[in-house]
């Protein structure tokens, strides 16, 4: 099915692009969420307007993400968990716990998928964690993990 993208869809297309997509993807996801419309000949005039509006939105979002990155960069958070006699945590500290603590510290929601954690944290210590906030925009957070009393 040929569709005109009305909004940016990550990994698929940018607003204003006309692409062929699978019919089920268009009917079940793109069209109901108003992310795209069926590509018709009368849409030709609107494509430039859609592209300009999308570019303005992308610029505003990028500025917002850059401000967030400067607020996050260098932030330290502390997490605690129970430690076994061998010195490892009974569970692990993962991106979910880090995102929750970071969100409460900053007062702004930080999604867990933004946190670049190669493997869960299993032992107490200090870790430098990278956050990929946007394409080309990164921030570093210092995560201090301690043993729970």
Question: What would a concise description of this structure say?
Answer:
By secondary structure, the protein is an alpha+beta fold. 32% of the residues lie in helices and 27% in strands. The protein has three helices and seven strands; from the N terminus they run E-E-H-E-H-E-H-E-E-E.
Describe how the helices and strands are arranged.
Elements: E1 2-5, E2 18-20, H1 23-30, E3 36-38, H2 46-72, E4 75-81, H3 95-106, E5 115-116, E6 125-134, E7 137-147
Parallel strand pairs: 4-7
Antiparallel strand pairs: 1-2, 1-3, 5-6, 6-7
3D structure, described in words:
Helices cover 32% and strands 27% of the residues. The chain is of the alpha+beta class and 149 residues long. The chain has two domains: 2-63, 3-Layer(aba) Sandwich (Ribosomal Protein L9, domain 1), CATH 3.40.5; 73-147, Ribosomal protein L9, C-terminal domain (Ribosomal Protein L9, domain 2, Roll), CATH 3.10.430. The strands form two sheets. The protein has a four-stranded mixed β-sheet with strand order 4-7-6-5. Strands 2-1-3 form a three-stranded antiparallel β-sheet, with no helix packed on it. A hairpin with an 8-residue loop joins strand 5 (115-116) and strand 6. The protein is elongated, with a radius of gyration of 21 Å.
